Amino acid sequence: DTGVSQNPRHKITKRGQNVTFRCDPISEHNRLYWYRQTLGQGPEFLTYFQNEAQLEKSRLLSDRFSAERPKGSFSTLEIQRTEQGDSAMYLCASSLPGSNTGELFFGEGSRLTVL
Amino acid sequence: AQKVTQAQTEISVVEKEDVTLDCVYETRDTTYYLFWYKQPPSGELVFLIRRNSFDEQNEISGRYSWNFQKSTSSFNFTITASQVVDSAVYFCALKTKGGSQGNLIFGKGTKLSVKP
Q1: What is the predicted pLDDT for the residue at A100?
Q2: A103·B50 Cβ contact <8 A
Q3: Which positions in chain A touch B104 (Cβ < 8 Å)?
Q4: Measured in whole angstroms, how far is the alpha carbon of residue B53 from the centre of its chain?
Q5: Average pLDDT of A56-83?
Q6: Over the stretch B13-37, which tens digit does the pLDDT of each residue have?
Q7: What are the backbone angles phi and psi of residue B86, rounded to the nearest 5°?
Q8: What is the DSSP string of A43-111?
Q9: Distance from C-alpha of B8 to C-alpha of B70, rounded to nearest angstrom
Q10: Contact B100 A56 (CB under 8 A)
């Protein structure tokens, strides 16, 4: 399978707990993106990496959220002290080097449910 | 401000019917890109098409066609002779040249159900 891989696919946690999601992009893609999608809405941009550098963060990414891509390959998205409002699908996408026209390759997402 | 509006929340058709999904966008930028993505029940968004603001030619790809009209700020998507496998949520999205590399602005999506 050479697509974008995300895990876990589904995480149920209690409010206040920390959760971490992992994304493995397509191997030759140097750009990696995180989006959040709530029920009935379109995806909303969270953050973007080019190689290991986090180049942009949305104001949606509160202090409780942190994303890393330490070696420019896989990325993790951690949410600390989860709140019920964090319940959503977290989507990862990647794109080709030099691609600035928005054709993104998405994973199947990690669904977070905060009880 | 940039915005994408998909006024149709849900559409239901019977197989072999044609269906058009509407998309209206707002931007002050003169250079921008428009997209359609398909999200099947598995959840993975699949890229369908990209159009830049300087190319108003309509495009056809098999049963899919797209109508881009700058005068009405619309980028509509038509599926001809729909099939059950077309059932999915379809998102229209906008990216401006001046915007960030990663920030696609998505509409809320239109859920298409094609019944046999």
Answers
A1: 59
A2: yes
A3: 43, 45, 102, 104
A4: 15
A5: 93
A6: 999 999 999 999 999 988 899 999 9
A7: -80, -10
A8: -EEEEEEETTEEEEE-TTS-TTEEEE-TTSS-EEEEE-S--GGG-EEEEEEEE-TT--S---EE---EE
A9: 20
A10: yes
Min Cα separation B87/chain A (Å):
16
| pLDDT > 90 in chain A, percent | 74
DSSP B15-64: TT--EEE--EEE-S-SSEEEEEEEE-TT---EEEEEEETT----EEETTE
Q: Which residues of B touch A7 (CB under 8 A)?
A: none
Q: Which residues does B contribute to its contact with A (CB < 8 Å)?
A: 4, 33, 35, 37, 42-47, 50, 52, 91, 93, 95, 100-109
Residue A16 zone, left/alpha/beta (φ > 0; ψ -120 to 50; rest): left
Quick one: CA torsion of A3, A6, A8, A12, rounded to 10 degrees? Answer: -130
How far apart CA B67 and CA B64 sit, in angstroms, is: 10
Per residue in B52-105, pLDDT tens? 898 888 888 899 999 999 999 999 999 999 999 999 999 999 998 766 666 789
pLDDT-derived band of residue A61, with 50, 70 and 90 as boundaries? confident
On chain B, the residues whose CB falls within 8 A of the CB of A106 are 37, 44-46
3-state secondary structure at position B82: coil
